[in-house]
Design goal:
The complex is a heterotrimer of chains A (380), B (290) and C (318). Helices cover 43% and strands 17% of the residues of chain A. With 380 residues, chain A is of the alpha/beta class. Chain A starts with a helix and ends with a strand. Chain A has helices at residues 2-15, 38-57, 77-90, 102-115, 143-156, 170-182, 204-211, 226-237, 253-259, 261-264, 287-301, 307-326, 331-339; strands at 25-31, 66-72, 95-98, 119-121, 136-138, 161-167, 189-196, 218-221, 244-246, 268-271, 344-345, 350-351, 367-372, 375-378. Chain B has one domain: ABC transporter involved in vitamin B12 uptake, BtuC (Orthogonal Bundle), CATH 1.10.3470. In chain B, a hairpin with a 2-residue loop joins strand 1 (129-131) and strand 2 (134-136). The radius of gyration of chain B is 19 Å and the shape is globular. Classes of the chains: A alpha/beta (380), B mainly alpha (290), C mainly alpha (318).
Chain lengths: 380, 290, 318
Amino acid sequence: MKSFTTTALATLIAVGAVSAAQAEIRIGVSVAATGPAAFLGDPEAKTIEMLVEELNANGGINGEQVELIVYDDGADPNKARTFATRLVEDDEVVAIIGGSTTGTTMSIMDVAQEEGIPFISLAGAIAIIDPVREYVFKTPHTDRMACEKIFTDMQARGISKVGMISGTDGFGASMQAQCKDVAGNFGVEIVADETYGPQDADMTPQLTRIKNTDGVQALLNPGFGQGPAIVTRNVHQLGIEQPLYQSHGVASDGFIKLAGAEAAEGVRLPGTALLIAELLQEGDAQREVVQGYKAAYEAKYGESVSTFGGYAHDAFALMVDAIARAGSDDPAEIRNALEATAGLVGTTGTYTFSAQDHLGLDLSAFRMLEITNGGWSAVE
Amino acid sequence: MDGLMQFIFSGLTVGAVYALVALGFTIIYNASDVVNFSQGEFVMLGGMITVFTFEAGLPLPLAAVVAIAVTAGVGVALNKLAIEPARGAPVVSLIIITIGASILIRGASQLIFDKQLHRFPAFSGDEPLQVLGATILPQSLWVIGGALLVFVALWLFFTKTLTGKAVLATANNRLAAQLVGINTNYVMTLSFALSAAIGALAGVLVTPITLVGYDVGVGLALKGFAAAMLGGMGNPKGALVGGLLLGLCEALTAGFLSSQYKEAVAFVIILAVLFVMPQGLFGRKSTERV
Amino acid sequence: MNMQSKWTQIAILVALIVILPVFFPSGYYYRVGALIFVNALSVVGLVILIGFAGQISLGHAGFAGIGAFSCALLPVHFGLHPAIAVLVGALLSALIAGMIGRPILRLQGYYLAVATLGFGVLMSMVLTNERELTGGPDGMRVADLGLREVLRDMGLKLSGGEFWYAMCGLVLVIGVWVALNLYNSPTGRAMRALHGSEVAARTVGIDVASKKLQAFVISAIYASVAGSLLALQNGFITPDVAGFMHSIEMVTMTVLGGVGSILGAILGAAILTLLPQVLTVFAEYEQLVLGAVMILVMIFLPRGLLPSIAAKLRGRGE
């Protein structure tokens, strides 16, 4: 957190004092704080609320306080569109952060783009930034990048035949499609392709089918919520020896607790630096940001940080940085400043936007992690 | 038929979960002709309260007892505050009331507890048992055993005890029941307490397998309701058979056909059964009173 | 609510729709208004099914899903104009309702509830699982209706919010007009007769099965058109529109406002649409309040808000 504030302060000084005649800067947020995607939206909302408090206590942006307006869209795209309209037309915000799921992002995106309000999405799908839309940015890695990271690791281990078991929720289904799409590029063949419902209690039938498929060398489970924890337990129950890969959708300490350390032993997944905050080397660029955020969040809320809260952290940092550099609360100028972001260090990675790239991360920001002895370790 | 045994074990585990929820529906329905759509929330409460009292330091069995008792209290409150005042309302109003109660309980739990998923340890460890070339978790046996036990208890209750018969009499004709000296208010209170307790017991038994969060109730209630209707609402035998059948259908479909449409198959079977047997498999026959 | 006053009811509705925008402080209110009209439209359909014919459905969101995805899919795959797609969607919903309606409507009470629920679940499952076609849970884009541009060329400039407010308001008025006409028609009377008692209705020579089916099909068309309007308005649609919770929401709106009353049902739609917007400051308590409202209205105003209040105003008490 400290380094983020110093970044903001540094930019502030660089830009110089701006006219103090402006009113408060209003930033709008619409996330799924309740409902089926609450484990995304809840830490996201908490993170941004915490950051705004800190920011305002430290003098705000260019001396102006930030007023935050948070709505809970419950992951319902229809509600998200209404709230986006409300943020733009009624609350007159200068920027929007939110869209915990791809569906809600798509809804907010249209409003933001039409009304010319910069919007940073917290959802994964590649369709959000490809094709690039003028006012739309995002902080999480795409699910396609997660697949690439996983397949890169598989390739290194000599794995070429994979059994997939995916959740039918938005996250799982989207990643399932992306992984099937890119598998060929890494010489990986998907030899089994099973699914389960988000509320399912037992996945042994699907896993038995995968187990009985010839030549399966590894399992891959795109999904979030309780599904991956149950899959991990079931894999252990069936005594499946092949390595299991999970997605970034379960990258939090809670997952190890739910799956049980014994069942989760050896599970690999692509995660962010946030999960291995304590293990980061002295020289690591992200070390300060990651440890600062983790310490502040855990002290304030008494629960462990998740990758998703990290996405919100980065989105807010990007937005504050852009507003500070723009030296104005004109949405178009904030957008221009946002697109000019270079080398901003977040918890997820280091962002550099351009007119062609509104995600600004590459695969290097993803770290392949392995669960060992009930904790996380980095795979070299 | 590779893996058949595993599919059956999975089906029985999941089916027993559905059956436990479905059994919870039967008592309230038998006493009042109300299908309580907040039954799933009782299951959730059973799991959540156990998690939080257990993490607060109570031994697991004691935490479970607390959870069941508290949930039974919630059931009684539901009856006193929402169902009794609306006596005689049409089916659709009762559906709205119990769905309203389910939304209310969910909203309260999200404030009182949290929005995270939780789990507590399985009663007899996590080491799977090897049976006939397939594996089953000891906790699954607890769930299946629990469903059977509740079924037998309910069956004895409704056929052998005076109170059980009083419950059935109340449902059949409230006025007549009062005339022969049955305290119908007591019967109603008792049935809500029992239904809620069975729901909470289900929550305690299944949480180590399915995990628990404040919003797991809807899905469970939906499946439990479907299972109860498949078997014939109000009949413990129907609830047990309906639940197990539903679970087996899903597991076998996932195992042999497609995991994508396993739930579809379950609902298609329900629709087909109802088309042929409009009262479910073991339902009571009834005629409309003019 | 006195149903004879057909034109009075329509006049009240039209007056409200026309006058309210005067008080709108920003474009956002047009959006909320349009949402209320869309919800009210499917609720008017349910008044015909639940209020007139006395049948319940916990799966009508399935028809909204058919309407919505017809608008999304037909223009892409068959090059149909979105307006035509609305009609095709409605026709498709009517056909499906007609097919499943006959066996389903033989069931009663909770058995009917679970069968309709099953239909709704199946519909939403197909839309969620057929990812190649529907985009799966992430949803898909919906083509623009194009009418706003036509109006602009004719010199009538409307913002997106204003256009959809007017459009949905217009369709709602038409829907209400049709429903009120049905109420007083022989078919409507027959439906209401079987609501009282099926056996009695049968003995006076009413073809009970076909009247129930007609109510089911008509209400399916309402839900389908409402789904289409929602899809076109949002320009984006996900299978949530066909979900169980959406079905429940529809029934709740219907019963809350007053199941036998069309204006009441619109009031119910308005309240439940506004509730989450009003409660944003207390978002944490939204579910708590919603649940309490549902229970309290059903206990204290069992006939729904509008009929109960109207009765009280006339001094007849409950």
